[in-house]
Amino acid sequence: MPDTPAYPVGLRLAGRRVVVLGGGTVTQRRLPALVAAGADITVISPSATPSVEAMAEAGEITWERRRYREGDLADAWYALIATDDDAANTRASAEAEAHRVWAVRSDDAEAATAWTPATGRTSGVTVAVLTGRDPRRSAALRDAIVDGLRDGSLGAPHRRARSGGVALVGGGPGDRDLITVRGRRLLAEADVVVADRLGPRDLLDELPPHVEVIDAAKIPYGRAMAQQAINDALVAHARAGRFVVRLKGGDPYVFGRGMEEVQQLTREGIPVTVVPGISSSVSVPAAVGIPVTHRGVAHEFTVASGHVAPDDPQSLVDWEALARLRGTLVLLMAVEKIGAIAATLVRHGRAPDTPVAVVQEGTMAAERRVDATLATVAGVVEAEGVRPPAVIVVGPVVGVGAEG
Ligand SMILES: C[S@@+](CC[C@H](N)C(=O)[O-])C[C@H]1O[C@@H](n2cnc3c(N)ncnc32)[C@H](O)[C@@H]1O
């Protein structure tokens, strides 16, 4: 009956005996899902791959180092028959049939009583695809479905189960692909998105028309008031039962005022989830080929804000101490004050010829990098017309290139 479709079913294997014959790569590939399902797994095989062996050592499976014997499948709920001995596989299949144990066979799908679908899991959904005899197509379909669920392009109707909360989502440095999978998924579930100027703004164009997008940069108040107005907007929408995504550039807690928003929401009794993001402080240097650490070159990196000048009484940064460090200094919000910052670093001991890279609009279409030294950076920034947002990297890592 070659065209009879398989009957799909989800086996609940937790605590139930599963016997796996063979310890090779097929077994290795199948075991993680069986372990994740909580099955009581016995692998029977004289030898095993290092990964299978490691799972036995970790106590995730029991490994009996021997060949298959008649009777091994008697108490099993489910079996995977994957030895390299065809005759043994055939005997084991016959035993599984006799005991009515559903069995998958790696060497002969037609002789098996069960088939393993291509599976994937995301956001509480298990996707299982069976195409009969085309495992590549099954895998490709599985990937397409899982990717679609992850990036929100495939709608998952559980969105209505989520109401009235706020997710603070770190959107990464700007490139639409550099948001996390979780961030992308929550964005796809939003009723309201409050977005900053930085971050993956391209993604906003793709939101369905019913989603209200509030541009936080356009909230008309002074600086301090703007934050209060944003907090108030988050509270008001969440109170009205909407699911609000507060989309921020980079990571919400790296100079992102994320905790202020969390505190206010918590005070108001509104559930809030924080999704970390890829901070520009490490990703923007990486995007232009600068590693913030490199063996033998830099054993530390420090991230500092340069939004207030070093001699400003409001500055919380110990610039003298930073000048004594030999590793990498990453400066955010420092374009305007870079002259005073560079001069302070040099005055307190950092070499004037220390390499500096200024990266404007990293990971975005307009990305550009200009190179200088501590002695020249102020002039170069001025002459090149560098504008925020920019990340400034100071230290010998700036000169470490891919060519080594
Ligand atoms: C208010 S801070 C927010 C940082 C953000 N939370 C993060 O983790 O990247 C804004 C500063 O981050 C830096 N920045 C953020 N995205 C950037 C990008 N794509 N290219 C260059 N600098 C960026 C700039 O220094 C900018 O002035």
Automatic annotation (TrEMBL):
Pathway: Porphyrin-containing compound metabolism; siroheme biosynthesis; sirohydrochlorin from precorrin-2: step 1/1. Belongs to the precorrin methyltransferase family. Keywords: Cobalamin biosynthesis, Lyase, Methyltransferase, Multifunctional enzyme, NAD, Oxidoreductase, Porphyrin biosynthesis, S-adenosyl-L-methionine, Transferase. GO terms for biological process: methylation. Residues 166-377 form the Tetrapyrrole methylase domain. The lineage of its organism: Bacteria, Bacillati, Actinomycetota, Actinomycetes, Kitasatosporales. GO terms for molecular function: uroporphyrin-III C-methyltransferase activity. Pfam families: NAD_binding_7, TP_methylase. This is Uroporphyrinogen-III C-methyltransferase. The keyword Methyltransferase applies. The keyword Oxidoreductase applies. PANTHER family: S-ADENOSYL-L-METHIONINE-DEPENDENT UROPORPHYRINOGEN III METHYLTRANSFERASE, CHLOROPLASTIC (PTHR45790:SF3), SIROHEME SYNTHASE-RELATED (PTHR45790). Its EC number is 2.1.1.107.
